[in-house]
């Protein structure tokens, strides 16, 4: 556990295990805790690298707006900082979008790509998923899909179905516990994420044909990303595998952690081995 100077900020980083390198990229309003189950499985056969982007987990926020291009730049800088020429990339939600862009713009850095619940543009949201990275992020994502935010969404309140008991917002609890900016800063982060999700990404599906890394595209059958959009991503990448996880929502990594971890591990185990080349 350490902080690395990446760009103009100190970003929290973890490295564990031994073997070929795997880089985990978390989702929006998430910390590394959201992928802890997957990390715990992968460290048995791989060296797992992970960091928290600005405004997430243990990394302090920045004054600038969030952007996926900055996410890619920070990821490349992180790989350089830990001495990795390339790694297997496993990204979830916002992290999956960053993974797609990384594979497009920096193909030599990506040994393989697992993209979980990614989208190419803001029109991909269905608004049908009940859980995302966190209950509060779910409200912002659904507001992004509808193009508006209510006061409760902006304030980060969840809206359970009538008569249903509200579920604990696990990622908000992680944020309150981990963020160096303090619990009250969460609304600032959520507002920035809302602006991000309503304007980015803007990836032309035709460009995905340039991805050369072995790729696994995964999503939930009740995801906030439309199933046809996930299919479009998979069919646009040469040779990509597609996995739709039944009985799950956008929070699939937490809802079926063992299954998701097994699928990722099986995909990685099927990739050619190479030496751990460092920069």
Automatic annotation (TrEMBL):
Region: Disordered, residue numbers: 124-181
Keyword tags: Hydrolase, Oxidoreductase, Peroxidase
Taxonomy, superkingdom: Bacteria
Domain AB hydrolase-1, residue spans: 21-257
MF terms in GO: hydrolase activity
InterPro entries: AB_hydrolase, AB_hydrolase_1, AB_hydrolase_fold, Epox_hydrolase-like
Listed Basic and acidic residues bias regions: 166-181
Gene3D superfamilies on file: alpha/beta hydrolase
Annotated Polar residues bias: 125-157
Key word Hydrolase present: yes
PANTHER family: AB HYDROLASE-1 DOMAIN-CONTAINING PROTEIN (PTHR43433:SF5), HYDROLASE, ALPHA/BETA FOLD FAMILY PROTEIN (PTHR43433)
Identification of the protein by name: Alpha/beta fold hydrolase
Taxonomic source organism: Actinoplanes sichuanensis
